[in-house]
Design goal:
Shape: elongated
Structural class: mainly alpha
Distance between the termini: 50 Å
Radius of gyration: 14 Å
Number of strands: 0
Helix content: 40-55%
Order of helices and strands: HHH
Largest sheet: none
């Protein structure tokens, strides 16, 4: 049977992989694949789903996701989402 610690470790690894693969230096997510040309950012929906993944991890007991500063990660994601705002 899989323990909560194992599930948390898997979630943390998946989140880290998502961040490494898709987050740009400016905090936004880039498009995957051949559409991931320089300067091309992802649409709001996938970026919002990535934010939800961070929210999910922030609800896991801290001792199970050591190394993740959930408050810092959420603040970073909110700054990125703000850049999509268009009046």
């Amino acid at each position: 049977m899989t323990s909560p610690a194992e599930y948390a470790a898997r979630a943390l690894r998946a989140h880290a992989a998502m961040e490494r693969r898709f987050r740009r230096r400016d905090g936004l997510y880039r498009r995957p694949g051949w559409l991931g040309r320089l300067g091309v950012i992802e649409h709001l929906w996938p970026a919002a789903r990535a934010f939800m993944a961070t929210i999910d991890l922030s609800g896991v007991r801290a001792e199970l996701v050591s190394g993740l500063d959930a408050g810092q990660a959420l603040a970073r994601d909110l700054r990125g989402l703000e850049r999509y705002w268009d009046e």
